[in-house]
Amino acid sequence: MFKLSTPKIDLGQTAIENLFINDFMPAAKADYVKVYLLGYRLACSGNDSFSNETIAKQLAMDIDEVVAAWHYWQRQGIVKCIDNDINHSEHQFDVQFDSIREKYIESSKPLPTIKRKDETTSSSKLIAALSNPHIKKMFEDSEFYARRMLTPQERSRVLTFLENYHMDVDLVVMAFYITYEERAITQNQLNYIEGIIRNWYSSSIFSMAALKESERTGIKHYQLIREVSRALGFNQRQIPSEVQNVVTEWLDIKKYDADYISYVVKQATRRTNNPNINYLVGYFEAIAKAGQPTIETAKQFFENKKYNPHTTTPNRKAKRTKFQNYTPKRKTDLAAIIKEKTNQTDR
Q1: Region of residue 18 (left: phi > 0; alpha: psi -120 to 50; beta: else)
Q2: How far apart are the first and last CA of the chain?
Q3: Which residue has the higher pLDDT, 189 or 14?
Q4: Is residue 64 part of a domain?
Q5: CB of 297 within 8 A of CB of 291?
Q6: Concatenated DSSP letters for 114-139?
Q7: Structurally, how many domains does the chain consist of?
Q8: Is the pTM value of this prediction over 0.90?
């Protein structure tokens, strides 16, 4: 039930015809309705100093959108856009509001009809859909998370999610749960819900089973990324993006088995004190050249100690340094040197 309280302070009011609210407002864009109402309010004030620029500023809209709104209402037959010879421009003209009641009464022709989106068809679809117990349960669960009843228009839109994206009803309910419970979205919830469903559609997820499998895959990816990062000595709260990208490539593009990746990473990092992601990539590429990327191939590969990803000539014998070529003198030689130095000092 809707009631009006008696105002203690009268700051004025603007009367809008019910015909506008009932027949014209529902089919119009929200910004167009704002332009009409504010323009009508300014017209009722009797002040002729207001303009389209005034409306654009107050509504934070582009001036071209304000002009488009007036042209829309003129096509509906309830306003007239009149050129002003004194101050006329593309954005500036007079707007005359016609009485919608008088037009209905005086005109022998009906007002231009506003094309609406198959309301009868939508209503019929909604009624037919509600006869399906699964659809009915979907709306009940969705309204539980929304904590309110969905309007007929909202219910019709939810049905389009099932049709356009081929989703199971359980996924639609899950999208409501994520939107209202997990992420506590407070504005444009249906748009957010459609965005979630669209992402699932792009990932070929059409059922709860597929969604759960995708989540399990995501968890496995994350666990392996953490394992590789830990092996490289990174803080688990700051996993580098290059590590994530490389591990994802190994799993999703090269289709390496997770156990195989773990084995190679463990074996490779044991062979150096300063491992990095490029060091690991070098091992994986070398093993791939040696054979199939399997644990067996990796085991055989690591038995060959000649490979070293840090050098371009792994089999070449390293050149000895001067320090390595140093040969200590015999004790007898050392004693002779000391005696010689002592004699020199005595002199």
Answers
A1: alpha
A2: 124
A3: 189
A4: yes
A5: yes
A6: PP-S-HHHHHHHHHHHHTSHHHHHHH
A7: 2
A8: no
